[in-house]
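Design a sequence for this backbone.
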């Protein structure tokens, strides 16, 4: 089997492992990121990560933690196949001779190249995922905000505003329903690529650092450039550290991306990435750019550890 085919197959298995382990953490991250700023005097819908978990399970059952997994599951083969295959081809171009080990710096370059390629798959996939994950929070926040705004009015008027806001909240039946809605009502194919700029700002430096840190950690454990004899525990550790480096370095861009992707098309709150960045800072301060950071970091270590282990083991068996 050729190197490209091996990377395609191993990347697919690695991505599936990452998704199964990490999706519940990702759901909580998106719910925390996308919840609107509450009206003055009102508490936010979620007090924190654990509160979001409890409310999600209470309202939707354990399946709610896996909401939106259909979209990334359907494309996980393509996404991770592209990520690891492009990285593999970049490695081949950067090697001084066939079979030569790459330096950490060369792995950074290979990761950046892979990040460019996967951005175009990640953007529409994550738009669909974020819409599904965030809709329950947005649907309940809209009536609450409307009721607070109408509080000085008569009870009947407040009830009318609440009902109208609730009806205005878009409900999706699944990934295909989101895609149909966006294609029909939000500018066609272009609508699926809403948030591409912050997606690239996350994927390019994030993957550059992730693959660089992965290689550096492996070499540190092995005591040199030959990492072929590392055990599975070491691979999990290196993958976990690499995943933490990814999210620790680019998390604010992910918050901006999520805000843009769940923003209302007809009455947008944000005109673009920089506008979203400024408004998040103005409304919530620097903490607003790290909303959901805890679940993201809690997810990154086991999910990326599972991904890199599954990739390395699968490739070694082919």
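Sequence:
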């Amino acid at each position: 089997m050729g190197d490209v085919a091996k990377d395609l197959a191993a990347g697919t298995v690695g991505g599936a492992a990452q998704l199964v382990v990490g999706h519940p953490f990702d759901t909580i991250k998106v719910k925390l990121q996308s919840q609107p700023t509450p009206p003055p005097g009102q508490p936010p819908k979620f007090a924190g990560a654990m509160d979001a978990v409890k409310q999600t399970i209470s309202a939707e059952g354990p399946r709610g933690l896996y909401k939106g997994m259909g979209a990334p599951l359907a494309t996980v083969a393509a996404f991770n196949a592209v990520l690891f295959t492009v990285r593999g081809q970049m490695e081949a171009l950067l090697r001084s001779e066939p079979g030569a080990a790459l330096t950490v710096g060369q792995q950074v370059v290979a990761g950046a190249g892979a990040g460019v390629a996967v951005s175009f798959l990640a953007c529409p996939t994550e738009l669909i995922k974020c819409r599904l994950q965030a809709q329950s929070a947005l649907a309940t926040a809209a009536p609450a905000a409307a009721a607070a705004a109408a509080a000085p009015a008569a009870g009947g008027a407040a009830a009318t505003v609440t009902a109208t806001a609730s009806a205005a909240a878009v409900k999706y039946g699944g990934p295909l329903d989101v895609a149909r809605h966006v294609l029909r009502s939000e500018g066609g194919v272009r609508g699926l690529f809403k948030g591409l700029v912050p997606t690239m700002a996350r994927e390019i430096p994030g993957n550059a650092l992730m693959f660089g840190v992965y290689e550096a950690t492996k070499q540190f454990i092995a005591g040199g450039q030959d990492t072929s004899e590392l055990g599975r525990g070491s691979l999990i550790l290196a993958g976990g550290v690499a995943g933490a480096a990814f999210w620790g370095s680019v998390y604010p861009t992910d918050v901006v991306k999520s805000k843009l992707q769940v923003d209302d098309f007809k009455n947008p709150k944000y005109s673009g990435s920089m506008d979203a960045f400024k408004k998040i800072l103005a409304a919530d301060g620097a903490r607003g750019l790290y909303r959901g950071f805890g679940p993201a970091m809690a997810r990154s270590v086991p999910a990326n550890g599972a991904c890199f282990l599954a990739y390395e083991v699968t490739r070694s068996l082919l």
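Confidence is low (pLDDT under 50) at residues 144-168.
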